[in-house]
Design brief:
Oligomer: heterodimer
CATH architecture of the largest domain in chain B: Orthogonal Bundle
Distance between the termini of chain B: 51 Å
Order of helices and strands of chain A: HEEHHHHHHHHHHHH
Number of strands of chain A: 2
Shape of chain B: elongated
Strand order of the largest sheet of chain A: 1-2
CATH topology of chain A: MetI-like fold
Number of helices of chain B: 17
Order of helices and strands of chain B: HHEHEEHHHHHHHHHHHHHH
Shape of chain A: globular
Largest sheet of chain A: 2 strands, antiparallel
Strand order of the largest sheet of chain B: 1-3-2
CATH superfamily of chain A: MetI-like
CATH topology of the largest domain in chain B: MetI-like fold
Strand content of chain B: under 5%
Structural class of chain B: mainly alpha
Helix content of chain A: over 70%
CATH superfamily of the largest domain in chain B: MetI-like
Number of helices of chain A: 13
CATH class of the largest domain in chain B: Mainly Alpha
Radius of gyration of chain A: 24 Å
CATH architecture of chain A: Orthogonal Bundle
Largest interface: A-B, 97 and 90 residues
Chain lengths: ~300, ~350
């Protein structure tokens, strides 16, 4: 189709607002991150070029370097991600399988399990803090409940030094399992009924059907959930901020460090940390996708 | 018969499992609402009905500083002892017998509260305190404002460009569209840092800047969703409109938008929840109380009033209830919107 210049321009003007906002608030900041990460900038005085200093400080400062604040925050993030990948996703998968089976209350469960993902991380964090925290001293409600129900042996300092990391991870799982559940359930319901029938006619028992039909067909969805869990968990921090406030470094996650550094006006360092985390995340998610592709090829299932 | 029984048991077990998880999702919120309606003394110390004791006993217990009169409701007494030890010591002082001490202690244990018992006082005043005295209405309206303006902007801007990407020809079309797509795929864990720096430089650390930044955040996904929806529609109606003499803008407004209404609902809900729940950028940008949205206000509020559990609960309820009600009303769109946001991105 040959268009006059006027037409081309008037057509183009439809995307102009989006393009303008996108350029100013996405493209420019995107490239600006890389510039800033080589600078020292306190948002007031002029930025100074410092070469790789920011990266050196993040990655290799401290003695030994793998125990410095950045790597321990990465460890905390990885710890929570580990629980999200295992506990949260297995729970979500079990729930999806069950909801797929039952006919009654099916809708009710679906609605209820998705309440938590709808609410903000701040609300969840603050609510759980009210339930678990002993601040002000002696106000830890969960412990009082356990006492009054005669389960005094189960009480503990939930947000104390030893348990805080695990409790944070579990709260994160509690908030997040609805996601994985909904996606996995949609995947399960996409599996054609004929395949199950065929398996039944061939004499497969329930376990064989699960192992030979459900799991292979669900692999792409599982891979998606896996990658989403990793990306989501490594970038989550508002809930942790509301729940523990970092707990003196025990539950400090990478994005919380970035946020704190920006608050104390170390924009260059914050950007460098963002670049490091972004590269790690991209690397990890591509590796995951690659592995899942290999597994799928091994199973001989067509990618969908 | 055996198989039937086995099946029933399996189903029951499955329901037990599902139901316990569902309870874990609901109970904290019921607890929250329950506590938000309590008198602080009821929550922390526990109330006991006067009728549990005889008149003489009541006086004895008050004199021994085991209980106090409860000002809110004359039918109740408030416990005035922090722990079991002190309770027993005070009761021993007034020469209560062992069995009597046991009885009082049991009553004490049974009436300790912490939100497990339904509220006796129904203190709606908590809400008034939170909303009026601590100016929660301001946070609420700020959130409403940001959400409304951002979502409106996103709907107009993204539907315009989605329409163009789907229907109109112009140079660089595919390049620009793929640019938006790529933007959705790349994880930007510190995306808020350069945006904040940029707004700082432009002197836009205010409502306008925030709305712009939030608009940008939802743009790519909304364009993608609407474009794919437009692609699936037939062009007959638009052709008819064109023959009737509509120009492109009129077609977009009168034909395009009504046709993509189902996708628009998803876009609206996804973005509304996104803005409503956004915390990071807002907390960096708004240090003034009068500009803070709900999430930032909640954080401020709870750090200022750490000891006021009932008030914090009232504040949390104010923030939670509208979202839950909205969600229950439009579950399908909410689920669709949020999962689209996750799985496409």
């Amino acid at each position: 189709m040959n268009l006059s210049f006027r037409d081309k321009f008037s057509n183009f003007s439809f995307v102009l607002p989006a393009l303008a906002i996108f350029s100013v608030f996405y493209l420019y900041p995107f490239f600006y991150t890389f510039v800033l990460s080589f600078q020292k900038y306190d948002l007031i005085s002029n930025p100074q070029f410092v070469g790789f200093d920011n990266f050196r400080e993040i990655l290799f400062s401290g003695d030994p370097w793998w125990k410095n604040d950045w790597w321990s925050s990465m460890y905390n993030g990885a710890f929570i991600t580990f629980w999200a990948l295992t506990f949260q996703n297995i729970l979500a998968f079990a729930l999806a399988l069950c909801v797929d089976k039952v006919i009654r209350l099916n809708k009710f469960y679906r609605v209820v399990f998705f309440i938590l993902p709808v609410l903000s991380e701040i609300i969840i964090g603050l609510l759980m803090k009210q339930l678990l925290s002993g601040e002000p001293i002696g106000s830890d409600v969960l412990n009082r409940w356990l006492y009054s129900m005669g389960l005094g042996g189960l009480t503990g300092e939930w947000l104390g030094e030893e348990t805080v990391r695990l409790v944070t991870a579990l709260v994160h799982c509690w908030k997040g399992f609805g996601w994985a559940f909904i996606i996995l359930l949609a995947g399960l319901q996409n599996i054609p009924e004929q395949l199950y029938e065929a398996a039944r006619i061939d004499g497969a028992n329930a376990w064989q059907t699960f192992y030979k039909v459900t799991v292979p067909l669900l692999l792409p969805v599982m891979a998606l959930v896996f990658v989403l869990t990793i990306l989501g968990t490594m970038q989550a921090f508002a809930m942790i901020l509301a729940l523990t406030g970092g707990a003196g470094g025990l539950t400090e996650v990478p994005v919380m460090r970035i946020y704190d550094h920006l608050r104390i006006r170390m924009a260059g360092l914050a950007c460098a940390e963002g670049v490091v985390l972004g590269i790690i995340l991209i690397f990890v998610s591509f590796t995951m996708l690659f592995i899942s592709k290999k597994i799928r090829e091994k199973y001989g299932v067509l990618p969908s | 018969m055996y198989y039937r029984a086995k099946k029933v048991v399996t189903i029951l077990l499955i329901h037990a499992f599902l139901f316990s998880v569902a309870l874990s999702c609901i109970v904290p919120f019921l607890w929250m609402m329950n506590v938000s309606l309590k008198h602080p003394e009821e929550f922390q110390k526990g109330l006991i009905r006067k009728s549990r004791f005889s008149g003489q006993e009541q006086q004895e217990l008050i004199d021994a500083r085991v209980v106090r009169e409860f000002e809110e409701d004359k039918a109740y007494l408030v416990w005035n002892v922090p722990n079991e030890k002190i309770l027993r010591a005070r009761l021993k002082k007034i020469n209560y017998s062992y069995t009597k001490i046991q009885r009082v202690q049991k009553a004490w244990e049974g009436s300790r509260d912490f939100g497990l018992r339904p509220t006796a006082t129904f203190r709606w005043e908590n809400y008034r305190t939170v909303i009026v005295k601590y100016e929660f209405w301001r946070y609420f309206f700020n959130s409403l404002f940001y959400t409304f303006v951002t979502v409106t902007a996103i709907v107009i801007i993204s539907s315009l460009s989605a329409y163009a990407f789907s229907r109109l020809q112009f140079p660089g079309k595919n390049l620009i569209f793929y640019m938006f797509l790529t933007a959705m795929m790349i994880p930007l864990p510190a995306g808020f840092v350069p945006v904040y720096v940029l707004l700082n430089k432009l002197h836009l650390v205010n409502r306008t800047g925030y709305v712009f930044a939030m608009t940008n955040m939802g743009l790519s996904l909304s364009i993608y969703l609407l474009k794919t929806f437009f692609d699936g529609l037939s062009r007959d109606l638009e052709d008819a409109a064109r023959i009737d003499g509509c120009n492109k803008l009129q077609i977009w407004w009168h034909v395009g938008l009504p046709l993509v209404a189902p996708a628009l609902a998803v876009v609206v809900i996804f973005n509304a929840l996104n803005v409503w729940n956004e915390f990071v950028l807002a907390s960096l940008m708004f240090t003034e109380e009068s500009l803070m949205p709900l999430q930032v206000g909640l954080m401020e509020f709870s750090s200022r009033l750490v000891t006021q559990h009932t008030l914090i609960m009232a504040a949390l309820t104010v923030a939670t209830l509208p979202i839950i009600l909205l969600y229950l009303k439009m579950q399908n769109q909410v689920v669709k919107g949020l999962t689209a946001g996750a799985t496409v991105g």
